[in-house]
User: Fold this.
Amino acid sequence: MKFKSTLVAAMTLAFAATAAHAQINVGVTLSATGPAASLGIPERNTVDLMPKEIGGQKINYIVLDDASDTTSAVKNIRKLVSEDKVDVVLGSTTSPNSLAMIDVAAESKTPMISWAASSRIVEPVDEKRHWVFKTPQNDAQMSTAIIEHMTNNNIKNVAFIGFADAYGEGWYEQFKGVAEARGIKIVANERFNRTDTSVTGQVLKMMAARPDAMFSAGSGTPAALPQKALKERGWTGKVYQTHGVANNDFLRVCGADCEGTFLPAGPVLVAAQLPDGNPVKASALTYIDAYEAAHGKGSVSTFGAHAWDSGVLLNAAVPVALKSAKPGTPEFRAALREALENVKETPGAHGVFNMSPTDHLGFDQRSRVMVQISNGAWKLVE
Amino acid sequence: MDFQIALILGQDGITNGAIYALLALALVLVFAVTRVIFIPQGEFVAYGALTLAMVGNGVLPATVWLLLGAGVVVAVLDGMAALRAGQSKRLIAIMAVNLAYPLALLGLLKAMPLAELALALQVLVALLIVVPLGPMMYRIVYQPIAEAPVLVLLIVSVAAHLAMVGLGLLFFGAEGYRTPAFSDARFEVGPMTVTGQTVWVVMSSLVLIVALALFFGRTIYGKALRATAINRNGARLMGISPALAGKLTFFLAALIGTLSGVLISPITTIYYDSGFLIGLKGFVAAIIGGLASYPIAAGGAILVGLLEAFSSFWASAYKEVIVFTLIIPVLVWRSLTSHHMEEEE
Assistant:
């Protein structure tokens, strides 16, 4: 009998404890395995560094791996919203996964912050995308940076090579639109696969078109392949890459063959070189210091910083939402969405967020810089 | 397209084709002897290349732990079987091969300054680590179901492939590696430049093919494998152990895969999952040879390599489509010309 009453007392206490310390549940789905693993792994590492407590509420992260697979991403978000009753969903790593998750986020009225690049994740802000935000820069912002640099350097003809998938195709469309308006001609348009062992054919064709510069739209270390092949065939002109290559593994794999390459990138890549007045400098360095303290010097990547920025957004929005509702309720989720939409002048690692009902990314020119590979390191181009 | 471009593309195609030819030979060999469609063949390419890259970076390659783990499993399986058969004397030999060898290798690797070894020694280290995984894999995965239908063996192959890819991500991480070239030499042959690495790839493939031909034609083990390939039951009646034939076949397949990986990794960046597609192109070549003929498979591999090189010039976006579509006319042609025989189960 005594045992029974102790048990009851203990259980009552336990329930009382949960009620008093209602926590905020944050569901995360990311691609820690599969083709996007090189992006997903730093993101997963970053989640461990994100705020554990905001506005006096404990934050509980529930992290699931979707293996870079769209079906699994949808399954994960369904599980997060229905079983774990999360207050907000973060992720996923890739654009196809994030696009597929929008429906579930809208249906369950759960705010979602994506870490993927495609502008279609948040544009246009319609009934469904009402619930969706994202932290990475749009490709359009990055491609205008490249084209600006090209026009300033008097480049008229460009040969393009991109991944034979949505990434390369998306960049081609994006780039073509702006380039033609600025009088830059695309003289060759080639494709290659991430897993290709040779791009000699494409490179020969691009060089035969006699362009002023080459532009390679690939992400991660596979994007080194065309550049190595160009070097092998004696190309000495300018080469542009996208921000998809902005990690240190690309430098390691491409080595001296990528010397002099230009690319647009988030300011976090060259945070230490930013002028002191830059509003992003301090917040980007905070992230770099936190990540490198946990994972060693030189381990930081720009992809993890997109995850970090979702933590920055939550840090700004959660205290506002807590004023009007309690975590775990539909009212809280609505209030959190409202608060996210009103985040103003908040510096993250990749730029300064100014959200609005029509802009669920909120980045301006401060979210990108031009970078050149110089002596095997990233160098800010003034 | 002018003549010079055609020459460069041809050279490129033959280099890749030589690698596909090696893999096609391994696939034909494994299928002929054990009826296994060896999907994990490509994983040995990736494991070989990445183990070499780890050794080159002075890191203890994680594959050595896999070797140790697989060795423990094989030792337990074989040890139990030996005890049950009352052959406790064999225990020592089993322990020596499956436990002492990985442990000795591990000790040796820890003691050696890996990054400072000559490239040839690094390659040898990579071979010593990865190649024994082949026969161990046969013992663990395929030997218990050696008599199962081809379809079951195929499904098990898919499982083994997925397991190896997953382990590869765990061992090597998501990023790719390149290893230094065997030779930086360049030769001017008429109007074109041939790189030293291309010569290495083509010559090694030729040497390996000749060595295999000699092995099958001149040695008792080679003849035993051929006998098993022609008639499994007949070979068994002649005293050829199917388990030994299987292990030997997988040893050769792993050797060929690992060597291919070592040869190709200076040419392109290899990722933990790169092996599959390379192996698949070898498979297309093996299919051209009907999974039976070595010379046709090797010729098919060169064809795949050339087709890949030229289609990447003309229609780069459709390169893979063109290469893999090749399999359809080949299958049609084969089914029209060959007499179909039901497999005896």
